[in-house]
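Annex B. Sample input.
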Amino acid sequence: MIGYITLGTNDIERAARFYDPLLAEIGAKRFMETETFIAWNTSPQAPALSVIKPFDGNAATVGNGVMVALAMESRDKVDALYRKAIELGAKDEGAPGPRGDNFYAGYFRDPDGNKLNAFFMG
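Annex B, continued. Sample output.
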C-alpha cells in the first residue's frame, strides 16, 4: 500500500551521510537522486524512503506524531539497525526491546529530528 515515505531535511549531504550507511544495513541503496532529493529502496517493487529539501524553500520541520517504521526480519536486525543509527549520530528515543506481545522495536531520531523505529513482529 505504501509506495514511499519522504522526510524533510535541511542538509541533504548530512542526511546522505546518515541514511547511506544506515539503510545499507538492511540492503537498501540509492535508486533516485537530485541536488535536493535522495531515495533508497531494497528493490524496485519495495517501498522506498527518501529525504528532500522542502520545495517551498522553507526550513524542514519535524511532524508531531509522525514516525517511519522500518520492518526487520528479526530482533537481532532491529538491534543492529538501532546500533548503527546511534553510531551515525541518531538520538535515542527508546532502546530496542519488547513492546507488548510479539512486538520488538527500537526508536531513534535522525540528525534532522525525524523519528524512526526498527521493529520485528513475532
